[in-house]
Structure formats: structure tokens, C-alpha cells
Design a protein that fits this description.
alpha/beta; metal-binding; globular; 6-stranded mixed β-sheet; 25 helices
Length: 813
């Protein structure tokens, strides 16, 4: 937009191409064609009151609070017009409430109408103190009302889901919530009901507001009609301490705001970051924060005594015991380091440096999940050392003509990526292709063409996706997004790499955990050093040795599975573990065995776990709310955050490791996150330059009588360790099912809605049956949902064979 100063008509400058010229409150302005009038006013700094308008929602004109006076061709329109639905036009003259008594009177009249039935419950309303209706009633309303009739009332609150409560009498029918749900999330569970004076927001009687993004409607509601079950009546806005933050639940790195009171986090809100999450958060990022104060939280060091019990100890004693045990282990057989994928980049760097400088090994792997050597090659070739300037970004996904998603379901594993895909599909007709076993809810909402693949054989589908897919990916700007589940399918990372080389499409790596990308950059891998350097690169090692003042091992280390195997066999004498849940590993039983059998085990964690029960020393570390640092999101973008709660008595991983290193006669210089970040920044990043993987494509296993090939993946809201103590959030989780297609159900004697049992020789999972478009001979289970913990229970994973039959049927055993 261009502001045009006063000028002589004969010397008038030309209107830029694609723009129109109009006058607003006496100011001449050039604005892009098609721009809404209210947006043009915003750019001029002219504030127009509104309720229904939102920059990320389609215009509705529902509340009529933004009325302005408009002239076209010298003739005033007979009535004030809604500036949120009218687009700018050449020669238009606009007068807002600042220069037009008529517009001001109209806005006051609308406000008077909105307040006819609005309850006088500001002292108890959760929105009180941050309510647009309060603010605009004071600024643009009348001091008294002509309406004195009894106000309309409803029973309150109405629970439209387990975590969203509706106070119907507060609603001004702005339709922000219904438009968000339908347009942005694609979940039209909430809608306008009835007609005329009885019109109200509601849900179908048997269909609650079950959306992964429902919490956004609470935040954008301008009047407090929608409230959070977890926050309702907990505090007033002016009693809260607000701190900008970054979500720790997935690799998107969403901007958020943490509101706390008296040392307790009470709520999370979405931050405004147009480059990343715009103004949205998924419900897991918004509501899953109570783990910081759960009963299982560890706040004091623990040391295992001679009688086998874990007892609280001082930091001095715990660090001394840990150092003594690790020094002995280093001399006896070596130390393995398993940092986990929930770390800030500073903490991941401290683990990477601890492994090389203190433990003297490259046996470090953050991937506390199924992984592969092929994945290591892929990360070195396509991910390590990348930045938003030379990598795929949210904006690139939104603007892409075509996107292929492989090894991930964005709605379940990276909600904000899903919202960008849906936005691109709605606004520009994005062609989305998704390689997967069945058409998920997210695939439907992004208009995806599903390339059905039998688990374990996805590489063949990617290698030959069809001429239509190849042609779409050959368009400039096309993107391939590959998730970390690709590691479970042999040859899939290689097929993705080859397809990208063939079509010219850009590759984006979309891991599920928040710390995964930062751990790659920090060098928490057996083949990669900090800054995207290869372990096998002598020059890179020399560069690090000069900065660290210590030798760097030259031989690539073991990956996570090999580290655990070596610990179980006695080849490694000790393990240092950072917040790893053994249940997430490819073989949880083997992981537990390794942790039990290893000679010495040190665990850094915030909450009791299966590792706690086996550790010799437990060193408590600070959760995100009590530490500062940064995540590196899947784009390679650094996402910094500060301390939200009092951090007295708790330490970040980097400080604990630094102090432990000093006890072992080595200084890491990572006393603070800032120190660790500064050293990593001085090292700089570079593309690792590894060779693209070229592995043989896997083959699908052939099921025998009563068997099926198992497909499994996680749901966003499940039994994840950071979702504890969140009953309202858990109430919106999608119900777990045994999913099969109709032909497979008939072959296995399964009935939709009835229960089926999936078995192996280790255990069984029984859930209701749901029919979907899976390939023949394939059964799907959620990986970590209530009643369906696949790997701990069955001991198998994606692509393995399982026995399936009706519940209680002996033939399924």
C-alpha cells in the first residue's frame, strides 16, 4: 500500500499496476485490488472496532460492528457498510467513526444491540480484563441503553467437548469459532443452530467438538463465550505472569505464551508468528503442560544405595558418585550416551560434547525410537547444516504447487504443517500426495491423493509413484516432506532421495519430536559432529579439537540400538541417558534388559520413568518452563524461549553435564544455555556433504492363515509422557481401533464395531474394529494410545506379521 500526499490534480502520479486509489478519512491511499477496506484502514493506523473479522478467516460480515460511511462516484451509499466485507475500489471515499458522525452513531447502535442480552458477568468471566467487547463497549458504545427487558439466559456452561465449555448467553454470533473449525481445521463439528432470536452456537447431540485444534476457538472468541475446562475460574488476566515461549511437543517450534501464577502454569496461548504457526496452536501444544507439576516430578538427585534402594542425595554427593562410576566405566569398557529427542539445541550440544570430550566416544544417538543406518546417511546428505534460507519452510509448503508426504501423517504428528497444507489446498488447490496405508482424516481434509502402500514396501511406491505424481513434483517449488517413520521401512529414505534428484523437488525432514532437528545440528549422532560435520572428516575433527582443546574420536560410533546391545552384552560399561522412554524404542524389552544389565547407569530426567527404576544415579533436570534455550524446528529455524517459572533449585541438562564433566576432570564450558549456544554459533554450520543413501527397497511380508501385516503410527493425543495429568485433553483423543479393509475383515471373520484381538507370542491387544481403505492383508493399530501400546505389548512394529481374529476366539492365539 502507498500513501499519496496532497498534490495538484494535473501532477497526479499514476496508480501502480494492480492497485486502486481511494480516500480514507481525508488521506489518499493506493491499495492492492481486492484488499478488504478494514485491512487498508489498519495499514493507515485507523482502528475500526470489530468482532467477527479475523485476518486469517474468510470475511463474514456477521457482527456489523465495523460500519463505515462510503461514497462511490461522488454519491454516498444509503447505509453505512461493513468494512470487513467490502473491497477497495478506485475513487472510493471512506469515512470511519473518526470523521463521520453517521458511522459513529451506527457503530454505537450495533454495540447497543449486541449488549441487549449480554450478561453482566464481567467480574467472573474468564475473558474479563482482556475482552474486546469490554474494550469496544467503552470506546465505541453508549453510556446507557434503551433496552431494559430481562436478559435471555441459558443453562451454563454447556460442555461441547471435554475441554471446551460454552456460555451461550455471552455469544454475539460472530461466527469466528465456526469459521475457524470449518475453514482452518476442517472440523465442522461446531455450528450455528436454530434461527432468528433463538440462534446459538452448538454441536450435534451425539457428536462433541472433537478437534485437535479446538483450543484456538477459545483464544479467538471475542467475548468469553468459549472457555477452557482446565483454566475456567482459575485466575484473572491481570494476575498472570506472561512469558513468550516455544512449544515443546513437536518439531514445528510454534510460538506460544505461557501464563503462570504463583509458580504454576495455568494456561498456554498461541503466539503470533506469521512465518511459523501464524496465530494457531494444536491442542496438545495448548493444553499439555501439567507434567511440570505432576506427582512423579523429580526435584532432588537420587543415588542407589548398597541395599538397592534409591534415596535422595545432595547434588555434591550425586555428582561425585556419578563421576566415580563413569570414570571406572570409561576405563573398563566405555560409555554410551542416549540423549533422547526432547532436548534444546544447547542441551543436545552439551551431550554431544560430553560424549567426545569426557567419555571419549562417538557412541551417542538421540533417536529414542526405531531408526536405521540409512537414516543417518539421509540426515548427513539432506538435513545437517541446513538453514531456512536453503531448506524447505512453512512458507514453501504453503506456496508449493505439489507436496508429497512420506512416513508421516501431518495432522497427527505435526499439526501446524497440516494447517499449512489445508490452507494451501483451500486457497490455491494444492496437489497433495500422501504415501500411507490408508486415507487418514488429515489426508481427507487436505484433499490428498493417497498412494496406498503395504507396510515395509513403501520404498517401491515412492520409487514409482506414477507419471502424474512425477509431473506434479517436477513443477518449480514442489516439496517432499519425509517423517522419521521412514526409518521403519528399508530403502524408503533412499527412494525419497532418488525421487527428489529425479524431479528437482526440495526435501524437508519432518521429525515428530521437538529436539530432533536441533540434535542433528548439535552432533548428537554417531556419524555427525556439531555444525553438520562428518565424523570421518579429518579437517572437521581438527577444527573441533582446536575449539574444544581435546581429541575427537575418528571412528564412527554405534547407533542407539547397537549401544543398547553393547550395554546388554557388557561391551559398554556405562550409559548416560537423557529423558529416554524405553517404550518408544524399536524393542522395549531389549532396551529395558540393556538398562538393567549395564554396569553403571546415569539418568538425567524430569519425571520418574522405567529408567529411574534401574538407574544408579538420577540427576533431575529442568523442564522447559524452568529453563531457557532454543529448539531448532524442522525448517532449521532457531526458536528461542526464556524462563517462565522460578528456576531455583533446578538445572538445565547442559549445566548438569558441565558440572559432571568437571568432576571427571574435563571442562565442557556449557555452564549456561547461553554459553553452549555461543560456542555452537562460533563453530558455525555447514552442509555435511554426505553421500545420498542408496539402499535396496524393502519387501512386504506375506501374511499366512489368520495373519496380517501390521501398520502402526501415533495419534496426536495419546499416552505420551508429556500428556500426563491432562484429563480434559485426553477426553478429545480419537478412539483407538483395529483398522482393516472389508475384504480382510471378511477373511479374518471380523465385524465392524465388534472387538478384535491382535496377537504375537509376547501379548495381545483387543480393540473395536473399524473398516477403512487399507490394502488387503494389512491391519492398523495406534502405536501408543490407551489399550494399544504396540511395541511394549506385542514386541513388533510397522511391517511385521501379527495374528488377528475376533476377540475371545481361540483361533487367534
Amino acid at each position: 500500500m502507498t500513501l499519496t500526499p496532497e498534490r495538484n490534480a494535473t501532477e497526479e502520479t499514476p496508480v501502480p499496476e494492480g492497485h486502486v486509489r481511494l480516500t480514507i478519512d481525508g488521506q489518499v491511499v493506493d491499495a492492492p485490488k481486492g484488499e478488504l477496506l478494514i485491512r487498508t484502514c489498519e495499514r493507515l493506523g485507523i482502528v475500526i472496532p470489530r468482532f467477527c473479522d479475523h485476518p486469517l478467516l474468510d470475511p463474514a460480515g456477521a457482527c456489523r460492528q465495523c460500519l463505515v460511511e462510503v461514497e462511490m462516484g461522488g454519491r454516498p451509499m444509503p447505509k453505512p457498510q461493513a468494512s470487513c466485507t467490502m473491497t477497495v475500489a478506485d475513487g472510493m471515499v471512506v469515512k470511519t467513526q473518526h470523521t463521520s458522525e453517521r458511522a459513529d452513531k451506527a457503530q454505537q447502535g450495533v454495540m447497543e444491540l449486541l449488549l441487549i442480552n449480554h450478561p453482566l458477568d464481567c467480574p467472573i468471566c474468564d475473558k474479563g480484563g482482556e475482552c474486546p467487547l469490554q474494550n469496544q463497549a467503552m470506546a465505541h458504545g453508549r453510556s446507557d441503553s434503551r433496552f431494559v427487558e430481562t436478559k435471555r439466559t441459558f443453562p451454563k456452561p454447556l460442555p461441547i467437548s471435554s475441554q471446551v465449555l460454552l456460555d451461550r448467553e455471552r455469544c454475539v454470533l460472530c461466527q469466528r469459532c465456526t469459521r475457524f473449525s470449518e475453514e482452518i481445521a476442517g472440523d465442522p463439528f461446531i455450528d450455528l443452530l436454530e434461527r432468528g432470536a433463538k440462534q446459538q452456537i452448538g454441536v450435534a447431540e451425539d457428536q462433541p467438538f472433537q478437534s485437535y485444534f479446538s483450543g484456538n476457538t477459545i483464544q479467538i472468541c471475542p467475548v468469553g463465550a468459549l472457555t477452557s475446562a482446565a483454566y475456567r475460574f482459575r485466575s484473572r488476566p491481570f494476575d498472570l505472569r506472561s512469558t513468550p515461549g516455544v512449544c515443546e511437543h513437536c518439531s514445528s517450534g510454534c510460538a506460544s505464551r505461557t501464563d503462570s501464577r504463583r509458580g504454576t502454569v495455568l494456561r498456554r496461548l498461541a503466539g503470533n508468528d506469521p512465518e511459523v504457526n501464524e496465530e494457531w496452536l494444536c491442542d496438545k501444544g495448548r493444553f499439555a503442560f501439567r507434567y511440570t507439576g505432576s506427582q512423579g516430578r523429580i526435584t532432588r538427585p537420587l543415588v542407589r544405595r548398597a541395599d538397592g534402594t534409591l534415596e535422595e542425595a545432595s547434588w555434591t554427593e550425586a555428582l561425585a558418585v556419578a563421576a566415580e562410576g563413569l570414570l571406572a566405566a570409561r576405563a573398563a569398557g566405555g560409555i554410551g550416551v542416549l540423549p533422547g529427542g526432547r532436548l534444546t539445541v544447547e542441551d543436545a550440544y552439551a551431550y554431544a560434547k560430553f560424549a567426545r570430550v569426557v567419555a571419549g566416544t562417538n557412541d551417542i544417538d538421540f533417536r529414542a525410537r526405531p531408526h536405521s543406518g540409512e537414516e543417518l546417511e539421509f540426515l548427513a546428505a539432506h538435513v545437517a547444516g541446513g538453514t531456512p534460507q536453503d531448506s524447505v519452510t512453512f512458507t514453501a509448503v504453503e506456496n508449493a504447487p505439489a507436496v508429497l508426504t512420506v512416513g508421516t501423517d501431518p495432522e497427527e504428528e505435526s499439526g501446524i504443517v497440516f494447517l499449512r497444507l489445508r490452507k494451501a489446498y483451500r486457497k490455491r488447490g494444492l496437489r497433495h500426495f500422501q504415501v500411507g496405508p490408508f486415507t487418514s482424516y488429515g489426508a481427507e481434509k487436505t484433499g490428498a491423493t493417497v498412494l496406498h502402500a503395504v507396510p515395509g514396501a513403501e520404498a517401491a511406491v515412492v520409487a514409482d509413484p506414477g507419471a502424474d505424481v512425477v509431473a506434479a513434483l517436477e513443477q518449480p517449488g514442489a516439496v517432499i516432506l519425509v517423517g522419521d517413520r521412514a526409518a521403519e521401512s528399508p530403502g524408503l529414505y533412499s527412494a525419497v532421495s532418488a525421487l527428489a534428484a529425479r524431479t528437482g523437488a526440495a526435501i524437508g525432514w519432518l521429525p515428530r519430536r521437538a529436539g530432533d532437528r536441533g540434535a542433528v545440528e548439535a552432533g548428537a549422532l554417531p556419524t555427525l559432529l556439531p555444525g553438520g560435520r562428518l565424523v570421518t572428516d579429518a579437517a572437521a575433527r581438527a577444527e573441533l579439537e582446536q575449539v574444544w582443546g581435546a581429541p575427537v574420536p575418528s571412528a564412527p560410533g554405534r547407533d542407539g540400538d547397537a549401544i543398547l546391545a553393547a550395554a546388554a552384552s557388557g561391551e559398554l560399561a556405562a550409559l548416560v541417558v537423557g529423558g529416554v522412554d524405553p517404550q518408544d524404542m524399536a524393542d522395549p524389552t531389549a532396551a529395558i534388559t540393556a538398562l538393567r544389565e549395564v554396569g553403571f547407569l546415569v539418568s538425567l530426567e524430569i519425571h520418574t520413568s522405567a529408567v529411574t527404576e534401574l538407574a544408579d544415579v538420577v540427576l533431575p533436570v529442568a523442564p522447559d518452563a524452568q529453563r531457557s534455550g532454543a529448539y531448532v524446528n524442522w525448517e532449521g529455524r532457531r526458536r528461542e524461549f526464556g524462563v517462565a517459572l522460578d528456576a531455583t533449585g533446578v538445572l538445565p541438562d547442559c549445566r548438569v553435564l558441565d558440572t559432571l564433566g568437571v568432576e571427571m576432570d574435563a571442562d565442557l564450558f556449557t555452564q549456561t544455555p547461553a554459553a553452549a549456544a555461543g560456542e555452537l554459533e562460533r563453530l558455525g554450520s555447514r552442509r555435511a556433504g554426505g553421500v545420498a543413501p542408496d539402499h535396496t527397497a524393502g519387501q512386504a511380508r506375506r501374511p499366512g492363515y489368520g495373519q496380517a501385516v501390521l501398520a502402526t503410527s501415533r495419534q496426536m493425543i495419546d499416552d505420551g509422557s508429556l500428556q500426563i495429568d491432562e484429563p480434559a485433553l485426553a477426553g478429545t483423543a480419537r478412539r483407538p481401533y483395529v483398522k482393516v479393509n472389508a475384504a480382510t475383515a471378511e477373511r479374518l471373520a471380523l465385524v465392524e464395531g465388534a472387538e478384535a484381538t491382535v496377537r504375537t507370542d509376547r501379548g495381545a491387544i483387543t480393540l473395536p474394529v473399524a473398516l477403512t481403505d487399507l490394502p488387503d492383508g494389512v491391519v492398523w493399530l495406534p502405536t501408543c494410545s490407551p489399550g494399544s501400546h504396540v511395541r511394549p505389548t506385542l514386541g513388533v512394529g510397522h511391517g511385521d506379521l501379527v495374528t488377528v481374529g475376533p476377540a475371545g476366539n481361540g483361533s487367534a492365539s
